[in-house]
Amino acid sequence: MSYATVAQLRQYLPQSPEYGQQSITPSGACTLTYEGQTTGTIASGATATAVQTALRALTTIGSSGVNVTGPPGGPWLASFQGQLAQNAALLTASGAMVAPATDALLQAVLDRATGIVCGAMRSLLADPSFDWAAYGAASTKIVRGAVGEYLTLPPHQAGSVTLVEQVASTNPTSYSAIADEWLQEGDGRLYRPGRWWPADRYRVTAVWGYGPDVPDQAVEVVLELAVNIWRSRDKGGFSETVGAEGQGFVRAVAGLTKQQQATLENLRNELFQIWL
Question: What is the rounded CA–CA span in Å between residue 103 and residue 113?
Fold first, then answer.
């Protein structure tokens, strides 16, 4: 699941038109047509270079108007260049299927950026299973309590706790239900009116997880990373100033910048305040 959408990313990349990149999937020998001009026959098993040469021979594209990549025999990716990329038309073909490819590539970039943010949050939370995702079915976890007014639970859906059991004092493998003695606070903690929770083990049934609502701050970081990945294509790296103001220099930073890292740390702290 990506934390942002292609539509959101396109707002940051208005220079990435719908037909700027197109996939070409041949079914054998084929010809390609661009704005009324048609290539010679492109052999079955042709290399991307051969396809590029054929397309660049069209005066409607020109000698530097398109780059083509892909394995021999296709599928190939035609990336229009320069001014042509801003208003490219859709290729047509005989013996091949042509389709816009930009959105699929943008989605792949968003998936990569989401993976970076998700991985950073897993590290910050020390939770290798972390993700913002739809809640599943209720299940039971063992929770260790500390002496105090509240029993703090791992992340779960608010109001989903249905059963709380306390380990038996005489049998560490046996649990007994705490019936009608606890209330669930809005932040997910459990409260026992007039009583404190002992430092025991508890068996709790709830719907566990962080939920499907990705915070706006995380969405923004994903979009920032995706913009950089798209522009550099091989690594993310927002520019940040290093050194004193007016005396520093600018460098490319691979992955998360300090500001983005701080944003995710703030999200971690908010989650800690709620769940830990």
Answer: 15
Task: Give the Cα-Cα-Cα angle 33, 38, 42 (nearest 5 degrees).
Answer: 90
Residue 26's CB is within 10 A of a number of other CB atoms, namely 22
φ, ψ at 102 (rounded to 5°):
-60, -45
Q: Please, what is the Cα angle at 273 between 193 and 181, to 5 degrees?
A: 15
The widest CA-to-CA distance across the chain, in whole angstroms, is 88
**Residue of 33, 22, 109, 1 whose CA lies nearest to 69:** 22
pLDDT in tens, 15-32: 667 788 899 999 999 999
What is the side-by-side order of every strand in the sheet holding 201-206? 139-144, 201-206, 163-167, 175-177
Q: Sign (positive/negative) of CA torsion 216, 222, 226, 228?
A: positive
Question: With the C-alpha atoms ordered 226, 227, 233, 237, is the resulting torsion angle positive or negative?
Answer: negative
Section 90-117 average pLDDT? 92
The model's pTM: 0.66
CA distance linking residue 77 with residue 98, whole number of Å: 10
